[in-house]
Structures are given as C-alpha cells and as structure tokens.
Amino acid sequence: MKYNLTLNADYSLEGTIEIVYYDYSAANFRTNFAQYNSNEAFLNAYSENKVGLSVIDFTLNNKDSVIKPLQIIYNVRIDNAVTEVDNELYINPCLFEQMKQNPFNEETRNYPIDFAYKTDRTVTVTIKIPENLTISQLPKAALIKMSDNTAKYQHNVTVNENSIQLYSKFNLDNYIYLQTIYPEFREFFNLIVKKNAELVVLTKKSN
Q1: Which pairs with CB-CB distance under 8 Å and at least 24 residues apart come from 80-85?
Q2: CA-to-CA distance for 67 and 74, rounded, in angstroms?
Q3: What are phi and psi of 196, to 5 degrees?
Q4: Residue 7 to residue 130: CA distance in whole angstroms
Q5: Domain ends where: 62, 80, 98?
Q6: Tens of pLDDT along 91-103?
Q7: Residue 89: exposed, middle, or buried by beta-carbon count in 10 A (0-12, 13-18, 19+)?
Q8: Which of 20, 49, 80 represents a domain boundary (last residue)?
Q9: Which domain holds residue 136?
Q10: 107 in the same domain as 179
Q11: pTM above 0.70, yes or no
C-alpha cells in the first residue's frame, strides 16, 4: 500500500492511495467488490470509519484477471489529519493504517489464533511538506518481533528533502498461533499500537 500526498496550505492532504492485492487478498477483494451495485456504494463502504477522507475518483486494474495482482488507485483529499497547536503541527504518519486498538484484548485465551493465511503487508506513506514548515520531531525507528521471529513489525519514519516518509512492514509467518504463546503475542500487538500512536511534529518557520 502506498500513500503519496501533499500537505496543503489549509493543512488538508491531497494525492493518491494505491493498494495492490495478491493471491487470497485479490480473490477476496474481487468477491467483495462484486457485491456492490454501484461504484458509489463501494466508495461509501471504503470511506466508512476513515474520518476526513474524501475520494474524488478511483481506478481499478486487473479486476477480471484471476492471475494478475489487482491494483486500485484512489485520488483523495484528507481533512482533519493535522492538529495545530500554537506554532506547531502534529500529524500521525500512519494515517488510516494506524492500529489504534489491540485486536486481542482478552487476558487469556484457551484456543489457537487462526488467521486463515500468512500475512506480508507493506505500507509506505510519503507526505510532501510546504517550504514554510520544518520537520522538528520524528518517531524513532523500531523493529518489534516475537521471540521465535514468526511475527514481526518494522516501523521507520525518515525525511527525504521536503517529504516525510513512513515505511512499515507487518509479517505473520504462521497462520495459526497456539494459545500457549498468547501472552507474548498479545504484547506484540500492544507494542505496535504504542508505536503507531507516535506523531511527527512540524514547526512553522518564522517570517
């Protein structure tokens, strides 16, 4: 998944969100997409729970191919992603990919966790910053993993010229995790939630 956005003078974000689905994910998307009776209904479902997102239009490639990866590109505007406090702006570089809550909130578990298939998910977010702002604080890079390396999460936010760039990679090498490792598995997700909550701080340049 790739976000390629520009921060505007009114602190809205505009650009594209590109998603590529492979294998099981592509098959699931094609099945789900066929259930909508219009593009508008599909976009309403996609935008649901994404506060501030407006989709201008979208392009869908390889929808009818069962061999090729399926690609969808949304042209978007995002409002309310930036918070202004005095001379500083705060933005979460994860945007809509932020994991806000641990999906495993029970203290204990008596049966295995079954994801149906393995997961390999990469997210990149690029946000071009206007010249009147400086990037004053970034989240620290992190590699979060299980002790047996079967679950890993990499999170890195950097600056490239006048752009913020987030790279995150989430891997589940197994699709079934036994309940015996549940406490460590739960803590793995707790750490991801905490990392995903960290903000980028921008400072307005003095005139």
Answers
A1: 80/51, 80/52, 81/11, 81/12, 81/13, 81/52, 82/7, 82/11, 82/13, 84/11
A2: 22
A3: -70, -15
A4: 7
A5: 80
A6: 999 999 999 999 9
A7: buried
A8: 80
A9: 83-207
A10: yes
A11: yes
- Asked if residues 164 and 122 have their Cβ atoms less than 8 Å apart, the reply is no
Specify the CATH number for the domain of residue 197.
2.60.120.1130
Tokens of 178: 């036994």
CA 132 – CA 55 distance, rounded (Å): 27
119, 193: one domain: yes
Residues 119 and 161 grouped into a single domain: yes
User: 42: Cβ–Cβ under 8 A, 6 or more apart, which residues?
Assistant: 33, 36
Q: Are residues 192 and 99 in the same domain?
A: yes
Answer yes or no: are the C-beta atoms of 157 and 138 closer than 8 Å. Answer: yes
Residue type, 5: L
Same-domain pairing of 99 and 196 = yes
Q: pLDDT band for 66, please (50, 70, 90 cuts).
A: confident
**In the structure encoding, which two tokens stand for residue 189, read together?**
């997700």
CA 6, 15, 172, 99 torsion-angle sign: positive
**What's the half-sphere exposure (Cβ side, CA atoms, 13 Å) at 4?**
7
Q: Are residues 145 and 50 in the same domain?
A: no
Nearest to 190 by CA among 135, 138, 162, 153: 153
